[in-house]
Amino acid sequence: MRFSKMKFFIVLSILVLAVAVIAGCTFQERRIGVIDMNRVIKESPRAQKYQNELDEKGAEIQEKYKFNEDIKEDKNLTEEQKLQKEEERRKRQEAALQEFIKVKKELEQKLNQEIEAAVKEVAKEKRLDIILYKQSVRYGGVDITQDVINKLQ
């Protein structure tokens, strides 16, 4: 009985050692890339194009809903009319804000898709397995920020 326990532990030890050796042989070093998204958004021409587009849409929306009327200064209106006009103005402002948020989300989604495609392309070219945000990494990794900015020309 004692001999069979010892035999079991020897076989188990050999098995564990074999698995460790096989795992060590197949272990491949992962290549890690890092990207500074703040810099990509700040410096890429595509992001600047979308920001300009958003600014233009914002100006159009503001013009469309005309917020410059001053209800409180109009002395010909009764209090009830002033309140009604103020409520209409508030509703227009809310509608304008919702429209602006919708446009902003659409543009952000387009930009994010383009950035993601550029990151995947650069990662493939540089044979990187993992891409992390630069802010999350203390040191190390291949910085692909400029390459992504170049892809977004």
Structural class: mainly alpha
Number of helices: 5
Strand content: 5-15%
Q: The CATH topology, please? A: Protein Binding, DinI Protein, Chain A
**Largest sheet: spatial strand order:** 2-1-3
InterPro entries: Chaperone_Skp, Skp_dom_sf
GO cellular component, one term: cytosol
Keywords: Coiled coil, Signal
Protein name: Molecular chaperone Skp
Give a structural overview.
InterPro entries: Chaperone_Skp, Skp_dom_sf. The protein is mainly alpha-helical. It has one domain: Protein Binding, DinI Protein, Chain A (2-Layer Sandwich). Helix content is 70%, strand content 7%. It is built from five helices and three strands; from the N terminus they run αβαααββα. It has a three-stranded parallel sheet with strand order 2-1-3. The mean pLDDT is 83.
Summarize the structure.
The chain is mainly alpha-helical and 153 residues long.
Topology:
Elements: H1 2-26, E1 32-35, H2 37-43, H3 45-65, H4 79-125, E2 130-133, E3 142-143, H5 145-151
Parallel strand pairs: 1-2, 1-3
Helix pairs in contact: 2-3, 2-5, 3-4, 4-5
